[in-house]
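Hello forum,

I keep getting stuck at the same step: I have a sequence, I want structure tokens, and every attempt I make locally crashes halfway through. Rather than fight my setup again tonight, could one of you with a working pipeline run this one for me? It's a single chain of 238 residues.
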Amino acid sequence: MIQVNRRSTFLSLVAIAAASVAPINAANARDDNTGLWTVFTTTDAFAADDGSSRWSYWFDGQVRFPDIGSGATQFLARPGIGYRPGKNLQMWAGYARLESESASGVSTFENRYWQQLNWKAGVALGGRFTMRTRLVERNVSTGDDVGLVLRFRTQYSRLVGTQGNKSLIVSLEPFYNLNDTDWSGKSRFSQNRTVVGVAFKLSDKLTLTTAYMNQFVWRDNAEDSSNHVAVANFNVKF
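Reply #2:
Ran it on my machine without issues. Output:
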């Protein structure tokens, strides 16, 4: 198991503290919604004769109800391919398709291309810290510009209980728009996701994570939004 040094621990805590600044403003939000996200995820290394493949696949499909009372829904499919150059580092690239339907029945379509770097930062505070940086190129049907979004997630997880099949998960993920677009406004922080949940390892091939997510969204021409979302994530290995 990786032992993290003092500097890595300090950097991890600084990243969490920096990401925590965004949710503080949630207390000033004027538009609160209650939602539900259901997620199906599968990821694993490709088969290799010696069992040491550096290549992996990823797919997640999501059905989102951002505001249960309004009837608005979102559907997302996101495949990707990963390569592991080292023990603690993994690089990913992929595509995502998102369809959003408003309460009035108007649909918006979005094509996304994404690149990602995962880093196992180390062990501290009785658990494990992992970092994920993702760059996304967004092409939305309501505009002509390509939006560039940088996402940085810090996640902490640790085993709880005595049976070794449950883990506490806490993560923070701020989003930053790197450029202005004709469909989403100015470059700036656009949202922050704070997640607290428990992962249950139901079998060698199935893990269920149930979580609460606060999604704080900054808006240019409307009230900011603080969304309170229940998340159910089914992770399957085939």
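Residues 21-27 have pLDDT under 50 and may be disordered. If your local run keeps crashing, start a new thread with the error log.
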